[in-house]
Structure formats: C-alpha cells, structure tokens
Amino acid sequence: MSAPLPQKALATALSTVPPSQAQSGLPPGVPPPGAAPQGALREISPVYLCRIGQETVQDIVTRTMEIFQITRATQLPNGVTQSQAAYQDRFGKLQEHLRQLTLLFRKLRLLYERCVEMTSDLQETPAELVPYVGEEVSAVRVELCSPAVLQERQEVLEKVRQKNQEMKMLMDQMRNLLWDVNAMLTMRK
After folding, report:
1. What are the pLDDT digits (tens) for 89-101?
2. 100 and 166 both lie in a single domain
3. Is the residue at 127 inside a domain?
4. How far apart are CA 182 and CA 189, in angstroms?
5. How far apart are CA 149 and CA 57, in angstroms?
6. Looking at the structure, do residues 14 and 90 belong to the same domain, yes or no?
7. Is the residue at 176 inside a domain?
8. InterPro entries this protein is in (predicted)?
C-alpha cells in the first residue's frame, strides 16, 4: 500500500494546474513538456504518479476494447446499402476513441518520463520485464535467506516433488485405463 498524500500538497497541486493542462487530460502532478517544476508539484510522489499511470493503462485497455466492439458490430459493405447516418455515427465514434487513445498514450508517456526523472537518484535501475531479442538477460540477485526460510523452501520443494510423482502415477493409470477402454470399444465393433 502507498502512503496517502498530504491533503494540503494535493490541494495546492490541483489549484496550480493551468487550464490548458486540465484540458489536455494530464494529471495534476505532471507538468506539460517544457514547463519548470513548481514547489508544490515536487511533493507528489512517484507512487502517486504510478497509480495515475495504472489508471491510464486501464483507460487505454477500455478504449481499445470499445474500438474492437464497434468494429465487430460494423457490417461489411458486401452490396448491402447501409444508412449514411449510421455509418457516420460509427465513424465519428471510432475517430473520437482513437483521438482519446492518442491523448492517453501521451499522458502515459509524460507520466513515465516524470517518474523516471523523479527516481533517477535511486541506486537500482528497474530491469526490463521482457528482454529484447538477442539481449543478454542479467542474472537476478538472490539475497541470502535465513536458515529457517531455506529449510522451509526445501520442505515445500520436497512436497511438490512428491505431488508431482503422485500425479504422474495417476496420469499413467488414466492413460492405461483409456487405452483399455478404447481397445474394448474397438473389439466390440
């Protein structure tokens, strides 16, 4: 869980948002490109920006699903005349969704850049979740654990091995049973 933002800092940040930024759909903590950060905006944490980024990604997914639903409902022009008004209505909806998607991706990019800027002084850089093709995957650092944790891990691994053996035996028995049933059905014909 993240720590809640101080109400005074949030209110100050919200009151300092210029109208152009409010219309562009940018969150209160993200200045428009080229704008100098203000004192009140520095109090907004990267965690808050990440939460806004998560909501933005959810909005992007929702908009994309709506676009797919509109295109699925659209009838192909295979000789059937469709009303021009319905076509224009769907086309307008698609254009609006695409415009909103463009704005959401810009907002997400600004959030990302702001978070990177705010966390640039951290010691570790976040590792890529999906490495590029041909890129070497760096080894994951494993911290030393206490002996109790290591023993518990060994016990869990042993239980998993036992369960895997039991499942393998059951699968072999089921395979043999199915083989016998199929053989009997074949002989019956």
Report:
1. 888 999 999 999 9
2. no
3. no
4. 11
5. 37
6. yes
7. yes
8. Mediator_Med30_met
Q: Are residues 37 and 86 in the same domain?
A: yes
User: What is the tally of structural domains in the chain?
Assistant: 2
Contact 118, 29 (CB under 8 A): no
For residue 106, give both structure tokens: 């810009």
pLDDT digits (tens, 9 = 90+) for 61-91: 999 999 999 888 877 666 666 677 778 888 8
Tokens read off for 160: 């998993």
Instruction: Identify whether 125 is part of a domain.
Output: no
pTM listed for this prediction: 0.44
